[in-house]
Sequence to fold (207 residues):
Amino acid sequence: MISVLLVDDHALVRAGVAGLLAGEPDITVVGEAASGHEAVTAARALRPDVVLMDLRLPGLDGATATERVLAESPATRVVVLTTYETDADILRAVEAGAAGYLLKDVSRADLVAAVRTAARGDTVLAPSVATRLLRQVRQPAPTRETLSPREVEVLRLVAQGRSNPEIGRELHIGEATVKTHLMRTFAKLGVSDRTAAVTTAMAAGLL
Fold:
């Protein structure tokens, strides 16, 4: 049985998603949360197999909640279910460790299939999201002009194994600013994580 936690700040949306999943013999909704903080608390208590996570949440956004859920329960699979599909939103979700990214216009059949796919440990992406990620990967090779001097500084510290708080202290900037630089760097390099960013930058002679 696949246990699912629903996270959305709109009760009507949660009820709708629960209704779509109802009746599936191998899927059960074990809990709901209306905010990012509630999501982290519920995931800690319930240890669901899959979390369906909205991005825009009160208090703690969905990407940050995803990071915290996975930090405490690495076996849980988080699938973003949102109305937003900007490059920045997608990159934030991927950076946070989301196993999938779906839009709220997904069909019932696709939603059910996505939950099962995520529970198996595979990745699920809405077609439009997959296209955006593929386009980023196919971008021209980066040059020294691609990244700003500050982005290069941040990436160099990442290559040294520094954490975001450590980078912030080294450069005298806030942790949120570090994350912003990293997200922009990921987008420019066409990658989705820190390791790939360093590897790509080194291969291009940027570091």
